[in-house]
Each structure stands twice: as structure tokens, then as C-alpha cells.
UniProtKB/TrEMBL annotation:
PANTHER family linked to this entry: LIPID II ISOGLUTAMINYL SYNTHASE (GLUTAMINE-HYDROLYZING) SUBUNIT MURT (PTHR23135:SF7), MUR LIGASE FAMILY MEMBER (PTHR23135)
GO molecular function, a single term: ligase activity
Function: The lipid II isoglutaminyl synthase complex catalyzes the formation of alpha-D-isoglutamine in the cell wall lipid II stem peptide. The MurT subunit catalyzes the ATP-dependent amidation of D-glutamate residue of lipid II, converting it to an isoglutamine residue.
Record field: catalytic activity: beta-D-GlcNAc-(1->4)-Mur2Ac(oyl-L-Ala-gamma-D-Glu-L-Lys-D-Ala-D-Ala)-di-trans,octa-cis-undecaprenyl diphosphate + ATP = beta-D-GlcNAc-(1->4)-Mur2Ac(oyl-L-Ala-gamma-D-O-P-Glu-L-Lys-D-Ala-D-Ala)-di-trans,octa-cis-undecaprenyl diphosphate + ADP; beta-D-GlcNAc-(1->4)-Mur2Ac(oyl-L-Ala-gamma-D-O-P-Glu-L-Lys-D-Ala-D-Ala)-di-trans,octa-cis-undecaprenyl diphosphate + NH4(+) = beta-D-GlcNAc-(1->4)-Mur2Ac(oyl-L-Ala-D-isoglutaminyl-L-Lys-D-Ala-D-Ala)-di-trans,octa-cis-undecaprenyl diphosphate + phosphate + H(+); beta-D-GlcNAc-(1->4)-Mur2Ac(oyl-L-Ala-gamma-D-Glu-L-Lys-D-Ala-D-Ala)-di-trans,octa-cis-undecaprenyl diphosphate + L-glutamine + ATP + H2O = beta-D-GlcNAc-(1->4)-Mur2Ac(oyl-L-Ala-D-isoglutaminyl-L-Lys-D-Ala-D-Ala)-di-trans,octa-cis-undecaprenyl diphosphate + L-glutamate + ADP + phosphate + H(+)
Protein name: Lipid II isoglutaminyl synthase (glutamine-hydrolyzing) subunit MurT
Family under the similarity heading: Belongs to the MurCDEF family. MurT subfamily.
Gene3D superfamilies recorded: Mur-like, catalytic domain
The organism of origin for this protein: Bifidobacterium kimbladii
Length: 463
């Protein structure tokens, strides 16, 4: 490893004051950009971070370097934002002061933006630990600047292949995170591409796993399982697809998800079966909860929180920004469900009964969504046949409507403009619960539009 000792300078040398002034200038400019962006409703949550990085490229590494418990990095295809929120919330409930990037802006500049909004003019971060969500590709950029003490790697699915290429490319990116982690890497035992990253961790780095009981394996198929079943359904063969060994020898897991119920789950920790109620929506978030539990236990192994405290902390976690978040409009719930790949959309549809709800689907193809929307054809929409879809919107509204037609799902209205679509959707059956399945940029636009007509928690994100 190349030594960096030559770069260190005593306080009386001129380099240190210059860095201090540059850091202060970057922070002041970043705060000004954030204020202007919010007042003008232009720009996203990452803009201040982009400006700060240009002024002071070392800002991120220097600001996070002094945390007593280091940095937790959470990455993977599905579940990053919710799992990050779970970990941060649980650690706070258990007594730590936590810094996190709450909006799901998961590029390095998004983390810097979150720092800008948190820091005082001293530039010192008052926290015990940072819990950060990073996009699979930007996680690699992050670990070149900051070595995480802990990493939680969730899964690898076919998501935004126009950005990442083959699914194994995504796994290689996460492998670089495992290689850079200095304390412990927590891995998904049931995802073969994630589990084998244990071999890439440094000799001094610990490895822990989270997993599923055998009874739940079919609830949460891996990417290989899902695409193998698709080929079989089409009359093809799955013989050429690598399948994980799902029974017999199992890697030991720190936490396993044992049973799923309505807003309740059972987990096994060191042979003990524990149950708790959950405020989170969707069966997929119960597996994310197992991942969060495993990571929290690793971080707090010196404290060894008791079972009751762990379950109580988990039961208090609320849905993350735009991920099953419920916004009340004229006395009725409007739920935003983020969807961005076949597995996530499938699990979302299987988690919610459409009966008694009005359903809207909003699909856009901006860079943050992924430009290739062909993955919609890998989702089974037949669960919506009986109720139909009240509104389809977004730049790819007609593609979505065509996909629904192939599954014989009736569509009542198509409107590409999201603002007009939302207004029309809310006027249908006033007072009735509503659910919107939306891609990332659709969620941001819809959330902003809802914020203009009803109360929405501030997430610091521009329209």
C-alpha cells in the first residue's frame, strides 16, 4: 500500500491553513447553492455537493475521517434506501448519534450535499457513525476516498443495464467495496453473486451473513431464479442458468428471516426466535429488516444490545423517502411505491392487494431511472386485472399501457404529463385510498406536486 505520510503537514506549515480556508469556502458556497435551489425549486439534492466537490475535492474524506465508529456503506440493486434508513434509525434508537443521507441521493455528491446541510461553519461533523447509501457504481468512487469500516451488500439484480452492462459487472463493482472495507462486510447468503464476495475481503476484515429460512426461499428469488423460471414458462430450458445451492450446506447467518406476516416478522438470532411488529410496507422490506438487524448487531457487538431493545428499535422504523411513504390528501392515503427493476416491481405487486384502492403507474426514462424500459416485460401484472389501473403516466406511459394490455389489465386513462395525471387521478373517487407505482424521477416529481397541495415531510429535495 502506498504511504500517504508525505502528504501530512504540521499545523504551522502553509498547506494546512489553505486547506482550512478552502474547506470553509466550499461549505459556504454549498450552503448558498442549497438555499437558492430550494427557494427556486430547481435542481436536485446533489447540486450543492457537486459544487463543493469542484471547490474542495478532499471535503468528503476529511469530514468523515474523525468519526469514532467510522462509516457504514450500504449498496446493492434493491432496498438500499430503506435498509439505510433502518440501520440509521435503529442505531439512533440504541444510543448512537448518526449521520446519514436520507433522501436516497446516492452518488458521492449526494453524500456531500447531505453533509453541507448538516454541518455548522466549524465544518465538524457531530456524529458517532455515518450510515450511507451508495449507488453500485458510485460506491467504487466513494471507497477510493473513504475506506468504510462496515459494508452491507444486499443483492444483485438486472437493473439499469444501460448503465452497468451485464449483471456480473455490478457484482464486480460491489466486490471493490468488499475489498476496501476495513472492519466487517455483511453479505446476503442467498444471493450467490453477493455471497461469493467473501473471498474478496482482506484477511483482516470480518464477514457476516443474513439469510432466509428454507420456507421463504421462493418468496425472494434471486435474479437467476427469476430468469430461469421465466425461460421455463416460455418453454425454454433453465439448465444453463447457474443455480445456487439452496439446501444442504448453508453458510452461518447472523440473522435469518423466518416468518412473514402482515406488518410483522419473525427473525432468528443465534438460535433465538424473535418477533416484532413493523411499520414498513411490503414483504420485501421484511428481508431488508433482516439485513439491517445483522449489520446493527455487528456495529454494536461491543455493547451487545438485548433482544427486546433490538426488536423495539426495529419496530419504530418508518418508511423511507418515497419508498412505501404514505401522504395524506383530503383525508385519504396516497402511497408512493418506488419500482425500478423486474424483481422490485414483482415483489411490490405481490405485497399489496389492489382491491379497494385506485392504482396509478408512472414510468419515466431519465438517466436516474435507466433509459432501457424493456424490463417492464419481465413483470407479471395479472394481479391488476380485476381492479384495472386508473391512470398511466410519465414519458413511457404508452409503453406501460401496452404492457398492461398484453396482460389484459384495463387502463382507464393515459396522460404523459405527470402534474395533469396526478390531478386527474386524485379527483377520481375522492376519499378512496390510492397507490402509485413510480420510477425514481416520477416519484420525485409526484412528491413535489403533492407537496404543493398537502403536507409532505421535507426531504430537502428540489422539484
Amino acid at each position: 500500500m502506498r504511504s500517504t505520510a508525505s502528504k501530512a503537514q504540521p499545523a504551522d506549515q502553509p498547506g494546512r491553513p489553505r486547506r482550512r480556508w478552502r474547506s470553509l469556502l466550499a461549505l459556504l458556497v454549498g450552503k448558498a447553492v442549497r438555499l437558492v435551489s430550494r427557494l427556486s425549486h430547481h435542481g436536485g439534492s446533489a447540486l450543492p455537493g457537486k459544487v463543493v466537490e469542484r471547490i474542495d475535492p478532499d471535503f468528503l474524506a476529511r469530514t468523515l475521517s474523525g468519526l469514532p465508529r467510522g462509516v457504514v456503506l450500504v449498496s446493492g440493486t434493491n432496498g438500499k434506501t430503506t435498509t439505510t434508513r433502518m440501520v440509521a434509525s435503529m442505531l439512533e434508537s440504541l444510543g448512537l448519534e448518526v449521520f446519514t443521507n436520507p433522501t436516497g441521493s446516492n452518488f458521492t455528491r449526494g453524500v456531500v450535499s447531505a453533509l453541507v446541510s448538516t454541518l455548522g461553519l466549524s465544518g465538524r461533523l457531530h456524529a458517532d457513525i455515518a450510515v450511507l447509501e451508495l449507488d453500485e457504481a458510485y460506491a467504487v468512487h466513494f471507497v477510493r476516498q473513504v475506506k468504510p469500516r462496515y459494508a452491507l451488500l444486499l443483492n444483485v439484480m438486472r437493473d439499469q443495464l444501460d448503465r452497468f452492462g451485464e449483471i456480473d459487472t455490478t457484482a464486480r463493482l460491489l466486490g471493490q467495496v468488499a475489498q476496501a472495507t476495513t472492519g466487517t462486510v455483511v453479505l446476503n447468503r442467498e444471493d450467490p453473486r453477493i455471497a461469493k464476495l467473501a473471498a474478496q475481503t482482506p484477511a483482516q476484515t470480518g464477514v457476516a451473513y443474513f439469510g432466509l429460512s428454507d420456507d421463504l426461499l421462493t418468496y425472494f428469488p434471486t435474479d437467476d431464479d427469476m430468469h430461469a423460471s421465466d425461460r421455463c414458462a416460455d418453454g425454454g430450458s433453465a439448465a444453463s442458468t447457474p443455480r445456487p445451492v439452496r439446501h444442504g450446506h448453508r453458510l452461518p447467518a447472523e440473522v435469518t428471516l423466518e416468518r412473514v406476516m402482515d406488518h410483522r416478522a419473525a427473525f432468528r438470532l443465534d438460535g433465538r426466535l424473535l418477533e416484532t411488529d413493523l411499520r414498513l410496507e411490503g414483504v420485501y422490506n421484511l428481508y431488508n429488516a433482516a439485513a439491517a438487524l445483522a449489520l446493527v448487531r455487528v456495529v454494536l457487538e461491543d455493547r451487545e444490545p438485548d433482544d427486546a431493545a433490538l426488536m423495539d428499535a426495529l419496530s419504530k422504523v418508518t418508511p423511507a423517502f418515497g419508498r412505501g411513504e404514505v401522504i395524506t390528501y383530503q383525508g385519504a392515503p396516497v402511497e408512493l411505491v418506488l419500482v425500478k427493476n423486474p424483481m422490485g416491481f414483482r415483489l411490490a405487486l405481490s405485497s399489496f392487494d389492489p382491491a379497494g384502492q385506485d392504482t396509478m403507474i408512472a414510468i419515466r426514462d431519465e438517466y436516474a431511472d435507466g433509459r432501457d424500459m424493456s424490463w417492464l416485460w419481465d413483470v407479471d401484472f395479472t394481479s391488476l386485472r380485476d381492479t384495472g389501473v386508473a391512470m398511466v403516466s410519465g414519458t413511457r406511459a404508452y409503453d406501460m399501457a401496452l404492457r398492461l394490455a398484453y396482460d389484459q389489465v384495463p387502463t382507464e386513462a393515459i396522460e404523459t404529463d405527470l402534474d395533469r395525471a396526478l390531478t386527474a387521478f386524485l379527483e377520481v373517487h375522492p376519499g378512496r385510498p390510492k397507490r402509485i407505482y413510480c420510477t425514481y424521477t416520477s416519484m420525485l416529481r409526484l412528491r413535489s406536486a403533492l407537496g404543493r397541495i398537502t403536507s409532505v415531510d421535507d426531504a430537502g429535495v428540489g422539484a
